[in-house]
Design goal:
Two copies of one chain form a homodimer.
Chain A lengths: L9 H13 L4 E7 L10 E2 L3 H10 L4 H9 L4 H9 L5 E4 L5 E2 L6 E6 H6 L1 H25 L3 E4 L9 H11 L4 E2 L2 H7 L9 H7 L2 H11 L5 E3 L5 H18 L6 E4 L4 H14 L6 E5 L4 H9 L6 E4 L1 H4 L10 E7 L2 E2 L16 E7 L5 E9 L7 E3 L7 E3 L4 E4 L2 E5 L2 E2 L6 H14 L14 E4 L1 H15 L1
Parallel strand pairs in A: 6-7, 6-11, 8-9, 9-10, 10-11, 15-21
Antiparallel strand pairs in A: 1-5, 1-12, 2-4, 3-5, 3-19, 12-13, 14-15, 14-18, 16-17, 19-20
Helix pairs in contact in A: 3-4, 6-7, 6-13, 7-8, 9-10, 10-11, 11-12
Chain lengths: 465, 465
């Protein structure tokens, strides 16, 4: 399946037909944002932008899409429009890999409303998922500290979504993936060991290890839990490691995939060290996530490399990020979506977001949402609590949204997954620790400029009247 | 991203290199099965087979895959092998859409071990996910009874995994999807209504409804909760419905997307009926799943059509099915994977699975796993409890695994998603109700033939010696 413009919800096309027939010229602004951090965490890592831009530059309806839509009863003149459809709008976005927070725009689309609607589903589909997984990866990185993290989740991923999961995991702090296709396309380090079936096919574990080490001596990792980790797998691995030494080679590691990883890794480390194999690394896998890895670390487990699968690539337990795409301006007029639930009230107009930086260059813990071309702020206001405001005069204000696409074409160079991962790491380092802890993380402040708040409140009152 | 043979884990290719260099001719049998039903349910719906067969018939490494693997240090002669790689093995499978149960083979791959390993990741990736989602859909269908069920989840799906989610949801009992691409490719009914942004773009709700109804009078569903459901949305929809009547048209429905759906749907139904609009359907959406729909039904909610998104397409709360692929035979010799955990011990040899059918043609509640060519069974034995056996003499025994692919080519006609959905429905009707309930469903019995059990136990003892 290739992503074409038909990778959308039917209602986008139905609405497009109505706009086309009744008011085809309306320019719209939509905000992409989410309402709460996944995993009860204190932040998210924004990911997926490069994929979105790559697709948007070339998005069209295929001939089979058009034939299908004709069958669905869309009119001839509208089908002609769809045939010529390209995304010709603009996008302003914060940088991919940045640390982001709820309720403030991460990205804005400004385009003819027909184009803006047709791309909505695709844009949400890619950004919601990659942001979820990059955030999960970042949390696992937080637990693993300097340990090596490998994504091994493709077999449990949501079909081809696993391709994007591997990319997002790398952006969020993983070192590599077992997913060959993703590694190839996104230039992510690729790694792999062996499966139990390999050893089973031999019946003889030692012979299996020997053959493997002979053919693949580089980065050789032996899986030692097929029969009995300490009584069979580890002694056989040591035999092979010594044979490799005699050939001037070094066994890279042994892998544990079952049992008590804390206990087994400590025992394994001690036995390897006694055999003068201090250089042999210990790889562990089996239903790991940020909490299990944290616990393993606390128990002094001797694990150098963590293989993480299901919990990473499915973003468990949340499994989804509820990012939304809300109309904030139409034909130059502000638009708002009301709700009984205050957090669901959207923000009108084209906007900018400023991050507050303290005197040490660290994030102060506040982003301010303003109208697009406002003067620097002296203070920001709480979105709803009129008694709360924050003085910003001592802080540096960094604008976060930048033009990345104009008239359907990129206006910034594309960035590799490595560059984005590096950037993400540098940004996360500026976020104080209290926002990163798993239990009740500190709440990052999102404020509004006085002007934006005033405009929004006037609109709310107007709609209620 | 197109699925090529590089859509796999690196270790499959690494192991393949070792097999290629040391023992390239080993024929292997692998079993696909899972160990426990998702969602604490009593069954699963097997899905994804047609996609697997479609891909396998044409699977190869692309030139860029091969260039990448060369960079990764694989040897020239092995790269030549990969260049010529095709899947030339056989597959025996139960029918897609069938009701399946834990610990028994759903599908067996018989092929050269190199080919069997290279396809493993892809096969698990597609079957695990689609089976998860078809099962979720089936549970939602169980709650919704005769209500119409529409998948609207693409925006919250795991990137392009959403494409396969829409297909699997249809197989599991949904009536249609909003996902245009999936509807087009899999010939699934496609439907859609309108978004809040449509009404917001007008500012004037009545004008928005009027324009929509004029341009799209067929299957017209008006979203009535943008401003105030009962005070604004519903009265405006009624006005438009009457205008449509005067043009000889009929409003298909109104949609509720927030608030108390039980209360609002009953109110809405009564008001529509008072306006002689008994034919106007009520569509509801907003974080629905099998439990919410069950509760709505119990409260007498007046909902004709349920739109289900996130919880369906992400398979929440499980988000994954832990299906595995275990070596059961190599070069004609049985293979077994041991574990301290009895449920993790695999079954050796090529096998067949028989479903027990009672005198009324219903499923009796037992599947028996046998060696491939055994005589009909008179009884089956519990996998581990020697005191438990089941007399089968009064039951019809239906073989479940059939040849679907030989020498890399399909040997059965491909089946459309509609045919599979119909088949699935007919199979589920044969499963007694007690296996379908959400709370502590009855446990379906999986037994072994006496011969298979004897062979397995002998192998276990041999390995422990």
């Amino acid at each position: 399946m290739n992503i074409t413009a038909a990778y959308t919800d039917l209602y986008q096309i139905t609405m497009a037909q109505v706009y086309f027939s009744t008011k085809p010229d309306g320019q719209a602004v939509f905000d992409y944002y989410y309402r709460s951090n996944p995993f009860d965490g204190g932040y998210s890592i924004f990911a997926g932008l490069e994929d979105v831009l790559d697709v948007l530059e070339n998005l069209k309806f295929s001939p089979t899409d058009l034939a299908y839509l004709e069958q669905q009863g869309f009119e001839k003149d509208f089908l002609e429009y769809l045939k010529a459809f390209r995304f010709r709008g603009s996008i302003r976005s914060c940088k991919e890999g940045d640390v982001v927070f709820p309720t403030r725009p991460i990205l804005q689309v400004e385009a003819n409303i027909i184009e803006a609607q047709i791309i909505e589903t695709f844009l949400l589909n890619i950004l919601n998922f990659q942001t979820l997984i990059a955030t999960k990866a970042s949390r696992i990185r937080h637990s693993a500290k300097d340990g090596v993290l490998l994504d091994m989740g493709l077999r449990r991923a949501h079909a081809t979504g696993g391709y994007y999961a591997s990319r997002a995991a790398f952006i969020g702090g993983f070192d590599g993936t077992s997913n060959v296709k993703a590694a190839e396309d996104y230039n992510i380090p690729c790694s792999g060991t062996m499966a139990h079936s390999f050893i089973q096919s031999y019946g003889d574990e030692l012979k299996a290890f020997r053959d493997f080490a002979k053919v693949r001596p580089k980065n050789c990792v032996l899986l030692i839990d097929t029969y009995n980790t300490l009584k069979s797998g580890l002694p056989n691995a040591i035999t092979v490691a010594k044979e490799m030494e005699s050939r001037g080679q070094k066994l890279m590691g042994v892998r544990l995939d079952s049992g008590d990883l804390a206990y087994l890794s400590k025992k394994t480390r001690a036995i390897l060290d006694d055999a003068n194999l201090e250089y042999v690394k210990i790889v562990a896998s089996n239903q790991l996530d940020e909490y299990v890895i944290k616990s393993l670390k606390e128990q002094g487990a001797q694990i150098d490399i963590f293989g993480v699968g299901t919990n990473l690539v499915t973003g468990k337990p949340d499994a989804s990020l509820g990012g939304v795409y809300k109309l904030s301006e139409y034909k130059g007029e502000p638009r708002i979506k009301l709700s009984e639930n205050l957090i669901k009230v959207s923000l009108p107009y084209k906007k900018q977001v400023y991050r507050m930086i303290d005197a040490n260059g660290k994030f102060y813990g506040a982003d301010a949402v303003t109208l697009y071309n406002e003067d620097p702020l002296t203070h920001m206001e709480h979105p709803f609590d009129a008694t709360k405001r924050l003085d910003l005069t001592a802080l540096k204000q960094e604008p976060l949204l930048e033009n990345v696409m104009d008239n359907g074409k990129r206006v910034v160079p594309s960035r590799s997954a490595s560059e984005i991962a590096e950037y993400s790491k540098s940004r996360l380092e500026k976020l104080p620790e209290e926002y990163k802890r798993f239990q009740n993380p500190h709440i990052y402040k999102i404020g509004l400029s006085p002007k934006l708040k005033q405009e929004r409140d006037a609109l709310i009152l107007k709609h209620k009247a």
